[in-house]
Amino acid sequence: MDFDVDPDTQTVEYEPVGVKDLLIEMKDSSELIVDLAYSALLHNSEDLAREILELEIKMDMLQMQARMNLLMAGRRPDDARGLAPVLGIVGATEKISEAAGDVAGVVLGEMELPGAIRAALPEAMEVLARATLTEQSSYAGRTLGAVDLETETGVRVIALRDDDEWVLNPDAETTVDAGDVLLLRGAEGSVSDVYEQMTGKQYQFPAEPDSEISDLSRAVDTIVLMKNVSELSVDLAYASVLSDDTELAEEVHSLEVEVDALQERLEAWALRAAGEMDDPVRLRGLLRLASGAETISDAALEITEGILRDIETHPVISESVRESDVAVRRVRVAAESRLAGSDVGAVLEEYPGSTIIAIHRPTDEWLFYPEDSIPIVEGDVLILRGTWNATQELHEALQSA
User: Fold this and answer.
1) Can you give the pTM of this predicted structure?
2) Structure confidence at residue 2 as a pLDDT band (50, 70, 90)
3) For residue 391, what is the domain's CATH number?
4) Which domain holds residue 338?
5) How far is CA 273 from the centre of its chain?
6) In a shared domain, residues 242 and 185
7) How does residue 198 score in pLDDT terms, banded at 50, 70 and 90?
8) Residue 209 contacts by C-beta under 8 Å, 6 or more apart in sequence?
9) Tell me: the pLDDT tens digits for 100-155?
10) Are residues 158 and 195 in the same domain?
């Protein structure tokens, strides 16, 4: 993306860059920055937190450039109605990046977080690691397709940075060179092995200190659930825009209500825990995290505002979301589907290239990142994420015999 930027003042001059291209980059960047924020928190990684601050600067420039281009594009009242939701998305991505920056601030020590919480959190999710590729690595100078990392190890490169330029969702043709910063996602053991292959160092997790707070698991569970819900909200919001799907937008609304309730739960826990601590100010970091997650879910709801208000989706929005490499789909399991009754692991083994990131039960229960043993039953609403073709094939299989 070309910008006329003064490195000292970070000013951005208007250039006739396509709004669609800007939205594509903003969508991918906002999804990545949320992922990075929670991963930095859960793994207590200052390196990941600093990457967030770099991305936040980039997002600020993208947002300003998008606003300039949108103002130039609107000439008639009909234009204003169609472009209003686009401006809403731009504003929502700004909120997302600011909230991610707040989470990064907690990790970097701007607000203290009890050490026992930092140590307990990594056990609650899959690993996202930041690795700088060395010249000695067997991966250096090769394409991701040649390395075939995901097939061989189950680890996926979700982004890489080369000379301050981000490549989001790199594909098989992407070459990785010494000095590149790669973001790896996968199971703990697999990521540790790949990290060592790339850096020549062992991947380290923080040691768990003694806890001065009782009932710590409740706070950990609440933070992880807020992380899952707010991340899912962003995914569903963009998917609803793509498909102009009111039901999907309404799911985002229900998740936003869930995050509000979780925030209240965490605040109540913090007030009780304060009585057990010599220095209750240390709990400010927890409250900042709760506020960040709530802001992210609010921003996701803003992305869907045009759909919920029955404003026709502007073509530039749907085109920008469709050209992103990752698809998110919502599908209800039909009674006649041969997959009804199967467990998650069996379904994903038959349909590689997709993941089930959430299940919404008919009882209104949400299961986030369900384990392989979880059964899929008639009436479940599944949220799928993966390649366009793979998720489409699974979508069809879940609706037909």
Assistant:
1) 0.67
2) very low
3) 3.30.70.1450
4) 326-399
5) 30
6) no
7) very high
8) 115, 116, 119
9) 888 888 878 766 666 555 555 555 455 678 889 999 999 999 998 888 887 777 78
10) yes
Q: What is the mean pLDDT of residues 210-223?
A: 68
313 contacts 306 by C-beta, under 8 angstroms: yes
pLDDT higher than threshold 60 for residue 15 = no
* Residues making up the chain, counted from first to last: 401
Write down the residue that tokens 């990785």 correspond to.
Answer: 176
Q: Which of 290, 318, 346 is the last residue of a domain?
A: 318
Question: Residue 50 class from Cβ within 10 Å (0-12 exposed, 13-18 middle, 19+ buried)?
Answer: middle
Q: Which residue has the tokens 């879910």?
A: 297
- Band (321; pLDDT cuts 50, 70, 90): low
Q: Residues 6 or more apart from 367 whose CB is under 8 A from it?
A: 358, 359, 361, 374
CA angle 13, 18, 20 (to 5 degrees): 125
Does residue 89 sit in the same domain as residue 64?
yes
Count up the domains in the chain and report the number. 3
Q: Which amino acid is at 350?
A: E
Look up residue 316 and give its amino acid.
Answer: V
- Rounded CA separation 150/193 (Å): 13
Copy the structure tokens of residue 152.
């061989």
In the block, tokens 């009932």 appear at 215
Q: Per residue in 170-209, is it b (16+ CB within 10 Å) or e — as a string? A: beeeebbeeebbbbbbbeeebbbebbebbbeeebeeeeee
